[in-house]
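re: ur question from yesterday

yeah so i grabbed the chain u mentioned. its 171 aa long if i counted rite. heres the sequnce exactly as i have it in my notes:
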Amino acid sequence: MASTSEARKSSTKNSNPLEITTPTDQEIVITRVFSAPRRLVFEAWTKPEYVPLWLLGPEGWAMPVCEIDLRPGGTWHFVWRNRDGKEMEMRGTYREVSPPERLVSTESWGADWPETLNTLAFSEENGKTRITNTILYPSKEARDAALKTGMKSGVEASYDRLAGWLASQSA
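ran it thru and got these structure tokens back, copy pasting raw so excuse formatting
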């Protein structure tokens, strides 16, 4: 196994920055701490009434389709639409569902991108929840192609939006 080849931290004004690392040739690990209890963060990730409020990437996108069948073997399907009507979608199948600690699912953006295996771990300490999302690609080339898409800024925008939504729930 290769050691961490790159660690980048966001420069957002948020006190809990996003961290993206590449611990192996086929993985991307995305980590962030949220100032909210694990139960609430897990619900934000798994309830279709909450996900379209924050998982939007850059400004200008909406999520008109959010389907979640949260059980092993159940599927999820998200469709985003921007102001110009352009759409993109992704879908997957849950392999493991262990509320509020862990989710394992596949993720596919369509025929042009390889399917990944995503392991999402939620850990809580002192009322804060650390999310660790490990994305396993079928090859180094696929992983590196994903990194070149600008995924960091999209994830960062979504996670910042999630932090704001979580703060509004405790206010």
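noticed a couple things. The two ends are 44 Å apart (CA to CA). also The chain is about 25% helix and 40% strand.
anyway ttyl
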